Amino acid sequence: MCMKKKHVISGLFPDELQKLLKDFVSQAYRGRQILDWIYEKNILSFSKMSNLPDKLRDELKLVFEPVSLIEVDKQISSDKTTKYVFKTYDDEYIESVFIPTRKRATICISTQAGCAFGCMFCASGKNGLKRNLSVGEIVSQVLLIRKDNPENPITNIVIMGMGEPLANYENTLKAVRILNHPECLRLAARRITISTCGLPEQILRLAKEGLQIELSISLHAANNVLRNRIVPVNKKYPLEHLMQTARDYIRITNRVITFEYVIIDGVNDTKRDAEQLISLLNGIKCKVNIIPFNPVDGTDFRPPKAFKLEEFQETLQASGVNVTVRRSRGTDIKGACGQLAAHSNNA
Ligand code: SAH
Questions:
Q1: Binding site membership of 267 for ligand 1 (Cβ less than 6 Å)
Q2: What tens digit of pLDDT does each residue of 117-152 get?
């Protein structure tokens, strides 16, 4: 059966939706009603949009769909972190995570099926990159997870799931603008974080977007020899280049950058590593977020010993670095950082 691809409403700006509605059903003004159902009332099916005439709902179903993913699996961790597996129209599998805490409800979303960057300690890149996600697929993750958790209003979105967001730059940025748009999700940009393995040209481009988003850079090593080994993109963009870009980003945006540092037992966890990190960050307006390594199948890496983690943190703190440790959530369902892998086609 040949199925025509439909327009995914969650991938459209309000004016784009209005134009398409004008072309297909000659009723541009219905756009506002439809967006109100989707973003204000959490309704993702035309059948339930009761202020639209029946005939229009049937017409809409032929050409449009509110979201474009199908939930195929959901696992709830003992700490209530929930991992969702979604299937795309072409049978790719992607994962997203819902992380409720006392004060927040954060959704972690993916931007690519698979990943091309092959960081040694991360599950997402083990089978390479399948493809970029569309804008609709990126925003759909948020809408579907929000609908499934109506008791926890979303406070934050972290673009830290599968894939490298800045390698799918246009789609990621458009998704951010839709999530932030006053007629769409209306989530403040500063509650949206993009995490990158460190692509300098795209970081500079991002600096000029005029968005108040948070930027995190995955550092994980403070010298080129080690970073070349565990974050291979470093061979293309060595630390000198990346750190100069970080300084430029801060100068242009006047915002703080967070550097992520996954601590792995015996790899990058010594006092000497911490001291190198301190000198690398010297004079940069930043925070450091330490992430204890989460076990991933197919690697020999192990989580850091508790006393090493503490020593690393204290060494940074003692020199005045603003440092936090990310508490791992959802490890029992492989929903924690670096554990997201498509149960892909070959699973
Ligand atoms: N590609 C982006 C976003 C995805 S990963 C990036 O590299 O930033 C989100 C964060 O989880 C990154 O800092 C990543 O390095 C980290 N991470 C990956 N594997 C991990 C693991 N096994 N344990 C802990 N953190 C991990």
A1: no
A2: 999 999 888 889 999 999 999 999 999 999 999 999
User: Is any ligand 1 atom within 6 A of the Cβ of residue 289?
Assistant: no
**CATH number among 3.90.226.10, 3.20.20.70, 3.40.309.10, 3.20.20.80, domain 70-346:** 3.20.20.70
pTM, 2 dp: 0.96
- The amino acid occupying position 244 is Q
| Residue ranges of domains in the chain | 7-65, 70-346
Give the tokens for residue 276. Answer: 């190198």
What tokens were used for 289? Answer: 């977020």
Query: What is the block-wise mean pLDDT of the chain (347 residues), using blocks of 10 residues?
Result: 79 98 92 97 97 96 97 94 96 96 96 96 91 98 98 97 98 98 98 98 98 98 98 98 98 97 98 98 95 91 96 98 89 79 53
Contact between 268 and 234 under an 8 Å Cβ cutoff? The reply is no
Residue to mutate (ligand 1; options 112, 120, 122, 202; most atoms within 8 A of CB): 122
Mutate to test the pocket of ligand 1, among 169, 262, 300 (most ligand atoms within 8 A of CB): 262
Q: What is the DSSP string of 187-214?
A: --GGGEEEEES--HHHHHHHHTT----E
Distance between CA 224 and CA 343 in Å, rounded? Answer: 33
With the C-alpha atoms ordered 154, 156, 157, 161, is the resulting torsion angle positive or negative?
negative
Say how many Å lie between the CA of residue 216 and the centre of ligand 1.
10
Ligand 1 proximity of 60 Cβ (cutoff 6 Å): no
How far, in Å, from the CA of 267 to the mean position of ligand 1? 16
